[in-house]
């Protein structure tokens, strides 16, 4: 299997990822051995990582943080809820099972160990960023690692109390491996899809030109991984359990934190509270009903369809014109995640985790371009605003008309999410891929 390592050029201050073969060693020596960091950089970044996580632990220890989700994991695994966790893909719950096995069926042990598990995942990804040979420069590697360390503080408790961290990090690792081991990257993306479903749309970033063997190999590995894991789940837990996340998604209404629900939430908070009702639905989330909700759901359906059209169009362009590059895939992955979040009927607090790992990899590849830097700052700001909404002022959103601070935070966060989607779309559309000269993988 022959590879070449590609470097991008920066054109007119924007990230133009024009791919040219670089005279560098093969990927086996590049992957984790040619980090551009100096020893002092590593020490400083590790100090930064520990400082950020000590701040996070301090906030968790001194602030009343809801533990409903993680206690729900524990209670479901202990058998208190017969249909507990069936809304999650079966493989997505395996980390929760592993932690449960070592918790001695103790709630307190489980809470502590689950948080520790998440921090280990966080730390391992940090190690990959520090040691990756994909960084364009020493500065970009420092920026990427520094961003990832502070991202945990900005996201708060969801970074150590939600299963969503695992598929998000797998997507980040898959992004790193696009540069060296595309087949392994494809397998990781397939695994992430079986854990949380949403990474499946990112498979379009694996599509190269139709004349290239790598196109068919990568898609085959991605699909084969999904088929293999699906068969494993069906054998262990049954076909019904394999399909349960899909039936669960079909009955969801408009969740109160979603972008589409924002106008109704704002209207309810400022004078029209009597027109809207927020209830805890069978979907295990708070949903809003009232004037405009049906229209908002229709808008989400249209936006989701538009997201899929964009994804297919991007893949077809790469397939016909052979415009694929790993950096181009990073751009479209970030863009698609933003589009999914804007189009979704649901925007749970932990969904912001989807963005962190892939953004860290994007920063690893930038030389100061305006697009990724702007998106990184927007992500951190949205993460902080997400904490204001949940858990600190969530009652303002759940009970229309009782308070405004949480609603204002929600409106700003969701407005910035739309802005971020537009910025990422501008970045993707303005991306000018060069003729692809890379060898088949």
TrEMBL record:
Keywords: Membrane, Transmembrane, Transmembrane helix. The keyword Plastid does not apply. The chain crosses the membrane at residues 43-63, 110-130, 165-181, 188-208, 214-243, 295-316, 328-344, 373-393, 405-429. The keyword Transport does not apply. This is DUF2029 domain-containing protein. It comes from Corynebacterium matruchotii ATCC 33806.
